Amino acid sequence: MDIAEQRRHFPALQDKTYLNFGGQGPLPTPAITAICAAYEQGQVWGPFSRRALDWVAEQEHLTRATLATTLNVAAADITLTQSTTQGCTIVLWGWPWQAGDHLLLSDGEHPGVVATVAQLAQRFGLTWSTCPLSYCTEDTITILEQAVQPQTRMLVLSHILWHTGEVLPLAEIGAFCAQRDIKLLIDGAQSLGVMPLDVTGVDFYTATGHKWLCGPAGLGVLYIHPQYREYLQPTHCGWRGLQGFTYQQPQWSPDGQRHEIATTAWELGVGLQASLTLHQSWGTATQRYGRLTQLAAELWTQLGEIPHLMRLLPHPPPCGLVSFRMANYSPETLAQKLEQRGILVRAVAAGNCTRASIHYLTTGEELTQLVQALRELQGGTDPHVGTPEK
Ligand SMILES: Cc1ncc(COP(=O)(O)O)c(C=O)c1O
């Protein structure tokens, strides 16, 4: 299991230290080739020909099956989406809310999800609030117990908080919700492709292929527990969710496809399948997660030795996100200075922090380069910038 060999498949990993998997994963050459070949083939056949349409149907089936495998669920429970956020909106707008219902979020949800909830609350007379889970200093369940209200109908949480890298205990939260008849919507943008997933006890789990799975942008996934598949009203809906074309009463598909909408870039599916096949050629999901957390822990430890640098988490991250603040530099400036040196990290406004995303594809040398660059910047010895920004 040679990591150098695996990295050779990624053009973006050849001449830079790419630590932005949590923003967008790089596409491997087999995925790029497969997508281009699919577009070319479609044009050779004629994009709306019987052959092309049969191919689309087959690819749709394979993509759904592939994503079901990554989530460890049945293909019938999968709704293909374009993004994590779209998965959230299908659930949030589809739930039959009553005025006065309450939604509980963590204090670290992604802005797109928060905006959707705020809009929903305004439209339907709901209330919503947040609870402090970004830095789980207390027991998660204790915090949730203090925050839920008699009217709380849904908990909207990230599996992995995108700014701090805290991982929330899904099984315990699922049991907590089940006891109170609260529905659980999980944003898995930062967890799909990072760790082996078990969505038992989760009602809705949404994620995307374009981050840690290194698939193309524009293809995401929503798991809907079969119990709620029909209860969820088709709101973001269209012809793809129908069982057949009819101008009478619509017959919605019996499976997760009922919540899909319309024409999309079907070619992206072959790209995601190719990315997944490549990952699977390097160990098991557990082995990839093990390597990633070991590297993240090494970085977290080394960052702890840099003066005037504060790590957001008080413990090694149980995922690939390592976030920190460094004195004298805004997160934006720090990300820019690092990019000048070929090291790509991102500033996350939500945590006022700089975030390095560590993948199983990351190497120890890349961590050394990042730590060395931070030391030079902190010491004012960076050849690219001179003195630190005040
Ligand atoms: C936790 C979380 N949720 C949602 C998103 C948005 O993802 P998408 O563009 O797939 O909707 C992100 C992207 O960074 C994220 O980190």
For the sheet with most strands, the description reads: 7 strands, mixed
Number of helices: 12
CATH level 3 topology of the largest domain: Aspartate Aminotransferase, domain 2
Q: Structural class from helices and strands?
A: alpha/beta
How many extended strands?
13
Write down the overall mean pLDDT: 95
GO molecular function, one term: transaminase activity
Keywords: Aminotransferase, Pyridoxal phosphate, Transferase
InterPro entries: Aminotrans_V_dom, Aminotrans_V_PyrdxlP_BS, PyrdxlP-dep_Trfase, PyrdxlP-dep_Trfase_major, PyrdxlP-dep_Trfase_small
Pfam family, one: Aminotran_5
Question: Can you walk me through this structure?
Answer:
One of its GO terms (molecular function) is transaminase activity. This is Class V aminotransferase. Keywords: Aminotransferase, Pyridoxal phosphate, Transferase. Residues 61-368 form the Aminotransferase class V domain. The protein has 390 residues and is an alpha/beta fold. It has two domains: 3-27 and 283-378, Aspartate Aminotransferase, domain 1 (Alpha-Beta Complex), CATH 3.90.1150.10; 30-278, 3-Layer(aba) Sandwich (Aspartate Aminotransferase, domain 2), CATH 3.40.640.10. It contains twelve helices and 13 strands. It has helices at residues 3-7, 29-45, 50-71, 84-94, 111-124, 140-147, 170-180, 226-229, 268-280, 285-303, 331-340, 364-378, and strands at residues 17-18, 78-81, 102-106, 127-131, 152-158, 183-187, 204-208, 220-224, 309-311, 321-326, 343-344, 346-348, 353-357. Strands 2-8-7-6-5-3-4 form a seven-stranded mixed β-sheet, sandwiched between helices. Strands 9-10-13-12 form a four-stranded antiparallel β-sheet, covered by helices on one side. A two-stranded parallel ribbon has the order 1-11. The termini are far apart. The model is unreliable at 383-390 (pLDDT under 50). Residues 83-85, 110, 112, 158, 162, 187, 189-190, 208, 220 line the site of pyridoxal-5'-phosphate (PLP).
